[in-house]
Write a structure and sequence with these properties.
Length: 411
C-alpha cells in the first residue's frame, strides 16, 4: 500500500515534518499518520436533542449510499488489489478511479457470446454478473450467478475458487437487493457469505469477516435505529483493536461512538491495520461507497490519533447521508475546536480546513472522475481495453492533466 500520504493523483501538500507535542492539560497530540492537523481531547459529547428525530427514519436509510457492498469478484479484482489501496487522503477525498458505465456495458455486450462457446469459463460469469451489478441491475446479476451455479453443479468436483466466488458474489448481490427493500435479502446474503468464508476464510486479505459483521450491524440497526449513534459497526461487532487505547478513546468527543463499553465477543481481535485494510478495502473494492464505512474509517483515524483524516472521513459520511449526521458534525466541531485551541494556546500553526475547502476538494475529485470516465469512453470507442495496465495508466495521466489536483489552503 502506498505510504500514509502518498497521493499521486491528489497532489495536496502536507507539512509532514511538524510534530509539535502540545502541552495543554487536556490535549494529547500523537500520530503515526497525521500531519500537523492532529489534536486529541478527553471530554464527553453533549446530548444532541435532534438525534432521536434523525434516527426515526423509514427503511429508506438503507439506501445504497448508507454502506458499501461487500467486495465483488471479477477479473479486475486481483489486479486492483495488487495495485493497492488509494493513499489515505485519496480515499477520503474521493479522487481515485472507478470504471465507467460504458466499461461495464461493453462486458454485457460481449460476454454472453463467449459463454455460449465456453460454458465452463466460470470467470466470465463473474465478469458478466459484476457488470450488471455495477449498472444497478442486481436481478440480472443474481440470474447470471444462478447460471454459474448450474454449470458448477454439472461437475464432479468444481474448482474451489469458482465455488468461493459464486457464493461471495451471490451474497453481495443479495445485500444490494436488501438495500433496495427486498425482503430477507440480508439473511440470504449472510448465508451465502458464510459459505464463502468456509471455502476461503482469507479471501480479500481477510476482509470477508468484517463484511459479514457489517451486514449484521445493518440488520440490527434496521430493527434499532439508535445503533447508528451508539456504535460504529466495528465497536458493535466487538472489535477491541489490540493496539488501540480504548479507555481513553471512548471519551474523546471526536469519536462518534456514544456507547462507553465495547461488547466482548469471541474471535473479534484485530490490529488497527487489519481493521483499516478491511474498511478501506470495502470502500475501494466493494462497488459502492458508503456512509457507515466512511464513519468507521473516521473512528479508526481517531483511534490512531489522526484527526485530520478523521475530519475528512466524517465529512464524507455526512455527505453520503449517514443517519447519525448530527453526531458526526459534533465530532468534526470538536476536532476544529481543539485545532483552534492549539493555535491559540501554544501557537501551533495548525492549518484548519473549512467546509468550503471540503466542497472544493470534493468538486475537484468529481471533475477528475468525470475526466477519467470521458477518457475511458473514448478509449473504448477506439477499441482499447482499459483493464490493460498501460492503457489504464494513460487514462489516469490524461485525467490528471485535464483536472489538476488542488492544494488545500494554508492558515
Amino acid at each position: 500500500m502506498p505510504g500514509p500520504f502518498h497521493a499521486p493523483q491528489i497532489g495536496i501538500k502536507h507539512e509532514f515534518h511538524r510534530r509539535e507535542r502540545l502541552a495543554l492539560p487536556a490535549i494529547v497530540a500523537t500520530s503515526a499518520l497525521d500531519g500537523p492537523w492532529k489534536v486529541r481531547h478527553d471530554a464527553n459529547f453533549s446530548r444532541d436533542p435532534t438525534l432521536a428525530r434523525t434516527m426515526q427514519r423509514s427503511t429508506a436509510v438503507f439506501a445504497v449510499t448508507l454502506f458499501a457492498l461487500p467486495c465483488l469478484w471479477d477479473k479486475d479484482t486481483l489486479a486492483d488489489e495488487l495495485r493497492g489501496l488509494p493513499g489515505h487522503f485519496e480515499l477520503v477525498s474521493g479522487r481515485w478511479f472507478r470504471h465507467s458505465d460504458a466499461y461495464y456495458r461493453k462486458r454485457i455486450d460481449t460476454i454472453p457470446a463467449l459463454l455460449e462457446k465456453q460454458p465452463n469459463a466460470f470467470e466470465l460469469y463473474d465478469d458478466l454478473a459484476v457488470a450488471y451489478e455495477f449498472l444497478g441491475n442486481d436481478g440480472e446479476a443474481v440470474r447470471v450467478m444462478r447460471d454459474k451455479g448450474a454449470a458448477l453443479a454439472k461437475l464432479d468436483e468444481a474448482p474451489k475458487d469458482a465455488r468461493y466466488r459464486y457464493h461471495a458474489n451471490l451474497g453481495t448481490f443479495y445485500v444490494h437487493g436488501a438495500l433496495r427493500g427486498k425482503l430477507d435479502g440480508f439473511e440470504r446474503a449472510l448465508s451465502e457469505l458464510e459459505k464463502a468464508l468456509v471455502i476461503n476464510p482469507d479471501a480479500h486479505f481477510g476482509r470477508e469477516r468484517f463484511q459479514v459483521d457489517l451486514i449484521r450491524y445493518a440488520m440490527a440497526a434496521r430493527e434499532n435505529p439508535g445503533l447508528w449513534s451508539e456504535h460504529d459497526f466495528l465497536t458493535w461487532s466487538g472489535y477491541a483493536l489490540k493496539d488501540a487505547e480504548w479507555s481513553r478513546v471512548l471519551s474523546y468527543p471526536s469519536f462518534t461512538v456514544k456507547a462507553r463499553v465495547i461488547p466482548k465477543r469471541e474471535g473479534k481481535q484485530a490490529t488497527w491495520q487489519e481493521a483499516y485494510t478491511a474498511v478501506a478495502g470495502m470502500l475501494r473494492f466493494g462497488g459502492l461507497e458508503g456512509a457507515e464505512l466512511y464513519r468507521a474509517l473516521g473512528d479508526l483515524y481517531v483511534v490512531h490519533g489522526d484527526l485530520h483524516l478523521a475530519w475528512w472521513a466524517f465529512h464524507r459520511a455526512e455527505e453520503a447521508g449517514h443517519p447519525a449526521k448530527a453526531r458526526l458534525r459534533k465530532a468534526r466541531a470538536s476536532i476544529e475546536f481543539h485545532w483552534k485551541q492549539a493555535n491559540k494556546e501554544v501557537r501551533a500553526g495548525v492549518p484548519i480546513p473549512t467546509d468550503a475547502d471540503y466542497r472544493a476538494v470534493r468538486d475537484n475529485a468529481k471533475r477528475w472522475r468525470a475526466a477519467f470516465v470521458a477518457a475511458e469512453e473514448t478509449a473504448l470507442d477506439e477499441g482499447l481495453d482499459p483493464s490493460d495496465q498501460d492503457v489504464l495508466s494513460g487514462l489516469l495521466d490524461r485525467a490528471n492533466r485535464d483536472v489538476p489536483a488542488l492544494e488545500v489552503p494554508r492558515r
